[in-house]
Amino acid sequence: MRELATNTTDATTRQNATREVGGGGSTATATASATRAGAAGAGADAAADTAATAKGKGGERGFRPDIQGLRAIAVSMVVIYHLRPSLLPGGFAGVDVFFVISGYLITGHLWRGYQRTGSVSLLDFWGRRARRLVPAAALVLLVTWLVARLVAPAPELPVIADQIRASALYFQNWQLASDAVNYLQAQGPATPVQHFWSL
Predict the structure, then answer these.
(1) Is 0.90 surpassed by the pTM of this model?
(2) Cα 154 from chain centroid?
């Protein structure tokens, strides 16, 4: 509680100092504005402090070894679970951990964009993700299809083609659901793109 009061007081002091140095208005007006900002809660203050802390030396998106370490652990859990399920029976939980971390990072990214511009543009956000992911995904899917045509049995090619198409159009998770694929009880072999659903 003391920390909350200190953060609110610090925010008020920073705003007063900024207004007085700027010379663009009376101290009473600046104090009233700062009080209203403090009354809005420490949530905005804490978010601003978190964003400032996250900036680090590398600019807006500073490297966070703690978050990257958690992501590495989550991915390792999933890899171990897929290679040797008996070593880590609950390794599939790494997917949930990874998604929670991703949600945290995405929320922070959208929040910083909102602080800069006053709005959130999901189209811009998705466009940046598409420019980063689609070229590599398209290459992987193309090479997978070419290799599958060479090595996969002919009866499996239609299923592989359906899943490659679903992966390319980003509805692989729905395709798997309609095919009633259950990871924990799968009888047949996985298709080469079965894990694209996570993208």
Answers:
(1) no
(2) 38
